[in-house]
């Protein structure tokens, strides 16, 4: 179980350089596995829980003509997983992929069974984090084994359908159950996207109402989440396509029809992600353009006020000079600031200043500085 | 029926996480269905209206050797749609796609019939909103069923052609009718594009005449509409291509010739959308460049005025200093501001200021600040 | 005949929403058709002119074992075009494409003939506008019919070659004539590109010699012209490729060799267009970088002058204060501005100012403001 | 052995213009080769070291029914490599590729053997440099020859597995050994990526805590390293794909299963690289946006302070003017600055200034300058 | 022979609009052809020079069982080239392509021979210009004819190998000779790239040491050169690929092995070009970021100095006001500037100013203006 932000910076593959392939390595913080086995046929559903391989063997012995769904939550027990691998004759490379929880969605066919992985994308309860965990599934003749990293259950709806026998779920075989689980996972993507959509809505409102620089950070954050979603849904689509084009006898034509539906949902998700990415980009562009405009406006205010007052202050400075009117001997010094002694000189000077200010305001108005850009 | 802006933020798939596939779920605000049945052959067109499945059964009974076009406007009745599905033996996945109105244009072949969806893009009466609604069509041997989300009718022209028996419409089979409806939908795209083209025209005029920051918002808005149009026309093209390459016996070579024409129209629409997107981008680039230039101009005005007056004001400040000419005892303090007592000092000072100002103006003129960039 | 700028904003398809396919609609400003028929074989070329279908019938009657080239300039007569369609048994969809003059270059094969369109790109006489008009051609067994929107003739060179019997033009059949016309059209693209190349040359010179903001507008204008050229030459290339790969008996291996040559010319044109687009982008980038640098320079001048004079003016302001030396009773107020009464105080103050100014200049010089960026 | 930075600027192919193909040219700074031969079968591992071809011949003679792994570290001896080529009948083009250490990862099949190259990416001990060196391998029937540019050994883990006989390494043939070496090389990519990931972590922390312009340089540096990594892993993936699709009898189906696993690791590496590139780009975007915001803030401070004080200073300037109250004869000059002699004039003036300042602050507050953007 | 800069603006195809295809048109500044014929077999190499077709005929007569390499330098003689075309039965379209020296690299097969073109990219002697000229080659059964635009010889190394009989050059047929010439041309690309790499090195050093605006121009210039190189090497790669996949009997499997080697070199060249383009882009980005930072720094200096001194100057302005202490009758005017008469008022005012300045400096320091961004 890893946070969204964390996961971006911890792509180090489990295991050491030069490890032999097929080695099962469990991260230290993995949860202890809990096993639930559902054995079902058209008539009944029998389930039992446990935390070691015994519960599987018991159920196998008890339910002879049933399809078994072995649901494993938590991967923190290498020995258990290796024992299951031996019991069910699973290739060690598959076991390595189950426990190394950084797989891309993929579909691999082996002799007598197939293996597939998906990414479960879930919002935390507080809706402020996105958890990206791995879901792996092995489908054999009358058997489906699913592995999840954590305990919280996004498959309740499927279990309900199984108990209520809604639709074809009890009769259409383990590949249909595999489809049902994958489709449920894809459905949760819509939930996450709806949450992101609402955040974008809020972000856009903020842009027009009270834009500040956190918009840039939040847009970038949103963009990364969308990139992560895309990175998950792109190979998910490919995986489902591979399943549709597979000629494994496990995947019946009926299941393929449903997979085609899931494929359409993937395409739809990718469309939504693309729309959201474009909206995010456009929010960022608008924000940057607003910053530019803001700068422009600030400069305009500064320039208008400065340019109007600078000449006026200069004039005041002129008449603040101390050029003497009379020399030591009391003679008038010719030409030295006679204005200061003129009648009405002060109101004339004030009027001149007013005139200059008005002229400058007029020039700026003519240049459109008061109403444009 | 959803507004353009809205639709971008509500891509949540109808239904709940973990729903069984093929479940018909109707949004709360869906309109009550109105059914119109047109039964036509070379000789006559018989039509009747109603709001339940009876009208279809009556018409089937009445018109034995006719092609039937069942036109459903409004999707707000799950039971009715499921009844129609049973009557005409339609796969539940198709019914789910009809009522879940966020499908991309697509073409799916089933045994004995095909299913296709398009997006109807229409301007609101006030031309300020774009409605993006779903059109679904099922084509069987002598039957075509069309579904629209709302009542307003963009197919009047087709109904006229049907009544007037213009062209091959009464004789070329239900797939030709399907083509005629799709072609009409594509024609409305040209109407919407023409409206966007006019808005771009206005926007470009505004850019040169009175650019303000709303241009950025409007360009972004236009760009999103174009992206939405592109998102619709791209899979529309693919869908028509799929129909052309389909070997369904329902699609005759004659219909394929017409579909090829519709395909060309799609390509043309995508060309126009691309042109418009490029024009929008170029408007934004020009606007941003104008903002830059405006900033430049503002800075130049500020700089020229400041740089000219700052030294002058400094000189005025110098001669406004109160350094005393005489000490307490009436002795002249040597060197203290003798200029203030010089003959003609004031006009000399003014002349010096004028000279400095002229010099700076000359320097700026030489640097080209008065006529460049 | 439509101007370049106009054409970008008028992509509305001729005809109304819901029109039956194959309907010939003529725009109001279309020119009256003028028909010229050239009937040629190895021995002779017979030509006659007219403005109705009679001239074609006469020529057909007169020249039994000739290849006929019917050259129609102007499309403003729906009846005439429909009559020609009937006479020569042309599909109505083709007639619609001929009169709806916004087709992309394309190649369509029909039973017994093929149809192709090109775009004629021509400079106006004053070289300030680019005309983008449609050229359509139908090739049958011993017949080629060409349609142009306007009267001015870019095919004079071909007619000369026909009259002088240069090359294979009289003997290689109507598809060769079709090639000859298309090749001539492609040749005019080089003329237009050479004109754009010269404009780019001028623009680049202006960039280095006297950059002003019109460069941005002109670059954008150039870019749009290049995008338009690209939009024309891209499908032109595809069309020629379709012709080369066609197995129509009308297109002989000899003609295909020539078409391959024309294909190379198209590739070359697209190369040139790409180069020019890159040059245009690089001009815009350089211009924007110059604007930035200019801003930088302006800010530097403002900052240097302001920062030098602000402290000096402050000092002048200090010594311009009126703190009194003596109180009402004539006692010296202690500490109040004794500097004003110091010997040599004024030159000392001036020297201090000079020192500060020099210090600041030195700091800026050390920071490299006088010679960098 | 070449540093990362260096290598970007030294792509000059070894050899001279016009050289005959297949010529072995050794760079001057190449290390003297050291040869280690491991001969192994299910029972035992025999190894010996040396620096000429004799050690190979001895080992061949000594171990008849073994698989031989000839490990060559250092390429600085053209004669030795040519001798090995002759002994093992290797095409001179292969020898040229081994010594010309700028090959992209590739896989070439020859009669009886195949040749493949990889790039070894290693951190220097001080973790401040990335070494990008070439690994070449030739696989024959019971023989694998590996070439490295330098002595330091990233294959210790493989040698340990060989000695301990872990997994299939002693029995699965030379192609498995080839896979084991390549997989080890790919594992080291994860190590380098983890290091880059940590640097990005630090960079992002710095962005939020103490952003300065070195962030730009460091991001660019990081981006180049990622581009280099991508340039290596992209053809690596293609190479492994080529090996999987090869029908060489040397590559058994068992080895292909393992190669498929290595292929997944390559895809995973490219995913991580893409994530990191996006993070790098987003850090640069955020930094540039911070620079913009910083500028904005600076301008706002300047503008607010300037705009508030400029009018105040102007008013002070007004009352600092020296307009005379009385003329020479002691008559009051009418209107000249009567304010200066009013009662309470000074506190009134100060109050007026305070009012103006407060008004301006209020205006800026209303414009949101104190809390926005 | 055309300069790099020039060539970008002169893409006008030789010949006139509407010219018949296959017409040989020679540009006015083309050089007079010089012909060298090398006739070689395993035993000997016979060569002779001349400037008309006679030298070829002589050599043909003299050397019966030799392979002939006719090397033509200079294309300025249409008659000669047409005569050669007749003699060797070459299609006129090929002759047109040889003389119209703006061909992209391509490979065309004709009956009994093939035709290929390459671009020779060479540095001028002064290393300040790049010459992009055309190399054409026709390969027949025992004959290879090469055409170059100019006299200077980049094939000396090949001629040496021919004379010294190095490698397979005398025995592997004319296609091998064709490969040898093309490989030599590709080798010269590495020389040009090494030169560009050095320029980039210098540019990057300048960026860090003394960035000025010429960096922008130089980067753009470099980028264009790289785009030109890419435009040449991309179709070069395709051409070689076409040759490898060709089933012409002239291209033996042995030659194909060598061509595969040349293909690798092309890929390598394209890798290097891409690296260099990325470095160029990164230099431009860094430069623009430096300009931004510089602006920031300038604004910061301006703002700090202005904001500190503006309030101080205002205070000085306050105490520079002339509000009178006494009215006409000598009565003290109440409240008018009593500070001016306070004891120690002046040092108090100075201290207040110092305090304000220190406070502002502290505020800026707290905001991090002295050490960040």
Automatic annotation (TrEMBL), chains A, B, C, D, E:
Q: Which Pfam families does the record cross-reference, listed alphabetically? A: CorA
What keywords would UniProt list here? Cell membrane, Ion transport, Magnesium, Membrane, Transmembrane, Transmembrane helix, Transport
Stretches that traverse the bilayer: 301-324, 344-365
Question: How does the protein's chain sit in the membrane according to the entry?
Answer: Multi-pass membrane protein
Which CDD domains does this UniProt record tie to the protein?
TmCorA-like_1
Q: Where does this chain mainly localize?
A: membrane
Superkingdom of source = Bacteria
Which InterPro entries would you find in this protein's record? Answer: CorA_cytoplasmic_dom, CorA_TM1_TM2, Mg/Co-transport_prot_CorA, MgTranspt_CorA/ZnTranspt_ZntB
* Subcellular localization, as worded in the UniProt entry: Cell membrane; Membrane
Task: State the NCBIfam families in the record.
Answer: corA (TIGR00383)
Q: What does this protein do?
A: Mediates influx of magnesium ions.
Query: In which family does this protein belong, per the annotation?
Result: Belongs to the CorA metal ion transporter (MIT) (TC 1.A.35) family.
Q: What is this protein called?
A: Magnesium transport protein CorA
Source species of the chain: Mucilaginibacter jinjuensis
User: What gene codes for this chain?
Assistant: corA
């Amino acid at each position: 179980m890893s946070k969204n932000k964390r996961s971006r910076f911890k792509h180090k593959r489990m295991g050491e350089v030069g490890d032999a392939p097929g080695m099962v390595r469990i991260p230290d913080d993995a949860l202890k596995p809990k096993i639930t086995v559902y054995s079902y046929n058209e008539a009944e559903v029998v389930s039992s829980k446990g935390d070691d391989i015994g519960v599987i063997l018991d159920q196998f012995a008890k339910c002879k003509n049933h399809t078994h769904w072995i649901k494993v939550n938590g991967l923190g027990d290498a020995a258990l997983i290796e024992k299951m691998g031996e019991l069910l004759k699973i290739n060690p490379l598959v076991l390595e992929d189950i426990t190394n929880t950084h797989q891309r969605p993929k579909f691999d066919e082996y002799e007598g069974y197939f293996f597939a992985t998906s990414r479960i994308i879930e919002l935390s309860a507080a809706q402020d984090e996105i958890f990206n965990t791995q879901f792996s599934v092995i489908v054999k003749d009358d058997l489906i084994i699913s592995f999840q990293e954590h305990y919280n259950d996004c498959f309740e709806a499927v279990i309900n359908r199984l108990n209520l026998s809604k639709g074809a779920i009890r009769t259409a075989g383990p590949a249909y159950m595999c489809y049902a689980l994958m489709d449920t996972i894809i459905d949760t993507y819509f939930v996450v996207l709806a949450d992101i959509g609402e955040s974008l809505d809020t972000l856009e409102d903020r842009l027009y109402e009270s834009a500040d620089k956190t918009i840039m950070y939040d847009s970038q954050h949103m963009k990364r989440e969308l990139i992560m979603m895309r990175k998950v849904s792109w190979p998910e689509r490919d995986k489902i396509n591979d399943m549709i084009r597979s000629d494994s006898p496990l995947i019946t034509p009926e299941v393929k029809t449903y997979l085609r539906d899931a494929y359409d949902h993937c395409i739809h998700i990718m469309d939504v992600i693309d729309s959201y990415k474009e909206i995010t980009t456009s929010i960022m562009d608008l924000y940057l353009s607003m910053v530019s405009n803001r700068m422009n406006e600030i400069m305009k205010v500064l320039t208008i006020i400065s340019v109007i007052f600078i000449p006026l202050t200069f004039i005041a400075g002129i008449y603040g000079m101390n050029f003497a009117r009379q020399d030591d001997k009391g003679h008038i010094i010719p030409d030295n600031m006679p204005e200061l002694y003129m009648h009405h000189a002060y109101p004339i000077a004030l009027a001149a200043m007013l005139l200059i200010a008005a002229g400058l305001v007029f020039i700026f108005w003519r240049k459109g500085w008061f109403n444009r850009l």
